[in-house]
UniProtKB/TrEMBL annotation:
Annotated catalytic residues: 22
InterPro entries in the record: Recombinase_CS, Resolv_N, Resolvase-like_N_sf, SSR_resolvase
Domain Resolvase/invertase-type recombinase catalytic, chain residue ranges per copy: 14-152
Keyword DNA-binding: yes
Protein name in the entry: Recombinase family protein
Highest rank taxon of the organism: Bacteria
Entry's transmembrane regions: none
Pfam families reported for this sequence: Resolvase
Region described as Disordered: spans on this chain: 129-152
UniProt entry keywords in alphabetical sequence: DNA integration, DNA recombination, DNA-binding
Cited CDD domains: Ser_Recombinase
Length: 152
C-alpha cells in the first residue's frame, strides 16, 4: 500500500485505488489469466485518476485473494480509510476486482457512496444507459457510480 497522504491539498480531488488478483501464483507472477496484473491495474487506475483530476491518496492491494468474499484485509482497510478520510473516488480496474457477485457489489457500492465517494472502473462503461445499468445492475447507477463513458 502506498502511504496514505493526508497532506494532499484540498484543491485536488482525492482517489483511492483498489487492486486485486485472485491467486497467490498470479500475485507472485504479476499476471492473472485475464492479463490484469497488479502493475497493469495500478497504471490504469492512476491514469484514470489523472483523467478525473484526482490524486491517488492511498492504494490498497489484495494479492492472491478471491473476490467471492468481502473478507479481504486490504478491502476492509480501504473501507475504513474512506470512512475516515475525504475521498472523491474509489478506482478499480474492473468491478469484479471489487466484488464477484451482485449482492456484494451492491453492498460495497452503497458503502462507498455512504462515505461520500464514487466508484470508478477504468475499463467498464457503467452509467445511466440501459447497457451500463445492465452491466452493473440497476443498484449502482443512482448510487454514485462513475465510469469512463467517453471510451465506450
Amino acid at each position: 500500500m502506498l502511504n496514505p497522504s493526508d497532506d494532499i491539498p484540498h484543491l485536488f480531488l482525492r482517489a483511492v485505488s483498489y487492486l486485486r488478483v485472485s491467486t497467490p501464483r498470479q500475485a507472485s507472477n504479476g499476471f492473472d489469466e485475464e492479463g490484469h496484473s497488479i502493475p497493469a491495474q495500478r497504471d490504469a487506475n492512476r491514469r484514470r485518476a489523472h483523467e478525473l483530476g484526482a490524486l491517488v491518496a492511498a492504494e490498497f492491494v489484495d494479492r492472491g485473494r478471491s473476490g467471492r468474499s468481502t473478507a479481504r484485509p486490504e478491502l476492509q482497510r480501504m473501507l475504513d480509510y474512506i470512512r475516515s478520510h475525504e475521498v472523491d473516488y474509489v478506482i478499480v480496474h474492473k468491478v469484479d476486482r471489487l466484488a464477484r457477485n451482485r449482492g456484494d457489489d451492491a453492498h460495497l457500492t452503497d458503502e462507498i457512496h455512504a462515505a461520500g465517494a464514487k466508484l470508478v472502473s477504468t475499463t467498464e462503461a457503467i452509467n445511466a444507459s440501459p447497457s451500463g445499468r445492465l452491466l452493473h445492475g440497476d443498484h449502482g447507477v443512482d448510487r454514485g457510480v462513475l465510469l469512463p463513458e467517453s471510451r465506450h
